[in-house]
Known about the structure:
alpha+beta
Amino acid sequence: xxxxxxxxxxxxxxxxxxxxxxxxxxxxxxxxxxxxxxxxxxxxxxxxxxxxxxxxxxxxxxxxxxxxxxxxxxxxxxxxxxxxxxxxxxxxxxxxxxxxxxxxxxxxxxxxxxxxxxxxxxxxxxxxxxxxxxxxxxxxxxxxxxxxxxxxxxxxxxxxxxxxxxxxxxxxxxxxxxxxxxxxxxxxxxxxxxxxxxxxxxxxxxxxxxxxxxxxxxxxxxxxxxxxxxxxxxxxxxxxxxxxxxxxxxxxxx
Length: 254
């Protein structure tokens, strides 16, 4: 049996501003690409345009670094105001060293700098940064509801971002939010090729879709933040991207 999945970066996506309707942006991109949505299609959206539309901007010039921020800045060499912003978005500081600050984000992700970004945004007076979406799973659910109501088909929606990983160099796309997708699929109890029952295997389906979408989005100045996915088939029950976050008591690195 032949299987294939097609990823298409939607063209002509404008620079998103606070208050812009992401659904309208997606619909315009689909029209420009000549794509009519079908049931089972997935739309992968870069975190940055969700954050921009939700006005998740923060001006570092408005922050006064705490003593904790000043101490961490002295170790990492980072701007104390940025460190203060990272602390405000985090529940725990896990690692600090020169140029590195790894934290547990308030939504559970373990990541560098709480995902606060300074790239591909207009800096204004030089103090502007962009925070992650407030609730990516909820954002995905809202976008899915809007698009499904209009196009009358069942869809999957993913918000992706670039993460580094333990043990590996480089970043890959991961799913911050998802709706209409089995984000984490358990294969425990399923037979392998030789009939043996698998005991621990779980597949991060949403992360795999997000990573592949990143290949056509690019990581720099490509300006292709929305990707249409066709051919993905999965009958496992839906669960949000929050299912991908490993509980603290199961995290060997914390």
